[in-house]
Amino acid sequence: MRLMQSQRKREHDALRASMARFLAMLDASTGVDHISLLRERMLFSQTFSTHLLNEHNDLHKLANAGQSALLRERDTIILKLREDYSTHIRQWTPPLITSDPSGYRSAVLALQRRLLDIMEWEERILPIFAIGFVN
């Protein structure tokens, strides 16, 4: 199902673009614009949630095709990332971001790197990203 593969890849690309925009906002010479950061964070969160639902539905179809162990591994990795992302959001309030911008940037980069690594792994390993995958 090439359409499914390209749609999930486009979702990964949208997440990558959102992360790049967020980082650019952090690095802006005009200082941190908390309203723009919040908007981008909300857009990222919506895109991420939609992607996870779509990907889960696609992968669930594979569970009966002998891919259960791989899917459990992926689910465990994603669950831990989501928990850490939720903790990050609760921890990094606008006053804390303002008082420790370099700490915030480091925390953002660490989460982004993890997600980028996960997406690269998914694109390399998961059957729904394989060229010519047929459902």
Brief overview:
The chain is mainly alpha-helical and 135 residues long. It has one domain. It is elongated.
Rounded to the nearest angstrom, the radius of gyration is: 17 Å
Quote the beta fraction. under 5%
Biggest sheet character: none
What is the distance, rounded to the nearest whole angstrom, between the alpha carbons of the first and last residues?
A: 6 Å
Number of strands: 0
Going by helix content, strand content and strand pairing, the class is mainly alpha
The residue-averaged pLDDT reads 85
**H/E element sequence:** HHHHH
- Uncertain runs are none
Provide an overview of this structure.
The chain has one domain. Helices cover 79% and strands 0% of the residues. It has helices at 2-26, 34-60, 68-91, 94-99, 101-125. The protein starts with a helix and ends in a 10-residue tail after the last helix.
Keywords:
135 residues; mainly alpha
Task: Provide the fold topology.
Layout: H1 2-26, H2 34-60, H3 68-91, H4 94-99, H5 101-125
Helix pairs in contact: 1-2, 1-5, 3-5
